[in-house]
Fold:
Amino acid sequence: MGFLPFFNKGSKSLLGLDISSTSVKLLELSRHEDKYRVESYATEPLPANAVVDKNINDVKATSDAIRRAVMRSKTRLRQVVVAVSGSAVITKTLALPAGLSDEALEAQIALEADQYIPYPLDEVNLDFEVQGPVEKHEDQVEVLLAACRRENIEQRELALNAADLQTLIVDIEAHAIERAFTLLNGQFPPQAQLVVAIIDIGATMSGLSIMVDGHTVYTREQLFGGRQLSDEIQRRYGLSPEDARLAKHQGGIGLPEDYPLEVLEPFCDAVVQQVTRSLQFFYSSTAYNDVDYIMLCGGVAAMEGLAERVSKNLNKPTLVANPFRDMNIAPHIDHRALISEAPTLMTAAGLAMREREF
Structure:
């Protein structure tokens, strides 16, 4: 068993690196008081099956893509925040005696972790963060425990080390999304108990995070993503995987005339169905029965007309995430390209907002 800094806080910029099933996304932010500035970013595709269900399957291919992203971004930072997916992490809130030092808390958690973690403790990394006092029990504090299989972390460290980078913090994707959500506050009217559903549709996985007043109260992942559209383009029109992916990202330019009606429309209907199903699971398993807004992010989010379709079918205001809306952007960065990729960079933004102590 080892302890890893999921929750570390500080004050010096780090690279946010999001490793998905199809690409690596790198982002560097600087902060001046409460204002962020984008200093560098890059997105680099991954070979097929290099990462499967967000688990690194080919360390060399992943590290090569990371190295290319670093070179393209021209960043000078070498210390990185990376994330593991929620499905790879076990979290548990414990009530422990107040006033314990970090060392005493660590020892106490090490004693109690065995009953909460369904793996041998020598195969996991743990971390914890004190959340605050337990209501009506001033002699106790709530402590959030996070545990992840060590192999998931080690694969990321190996890929980063091979790209001459240092893994300083391993975060949790849902926490990164929650952190990035603070960048979107200005897009919502002031409202008590504001409930926002963030739908992150990636290549193979879709995630739902429910925010209530900016705090995550529910998360869920399911197998569904933009690769289904790429696969259908490839199958129907006899294209290579790369040509199919490119045609999808170009909005179907160069594809036969039947593409919008026969391929794109059914996929968009499937997206709406998945969003509806995810929200129904949320309603059925919690005390909530409605959301105020839907926020789309991930590679599928920017598809033309998708937000409007989701909004119409679910009768909810639906926005496309842009974490850079109120940020300054370094002059050398292609502003238009960055904004077009903004929905895919929510996790990277949340990671890049992490900082370390001097």
Observations:
- DSSP finds ten helices and 19 strands in the chain.
- Residues 123 and 235 are 41 Å apart (CA to CA).
- Residues 7-11 have pLDDT under 50 and may be disordered.
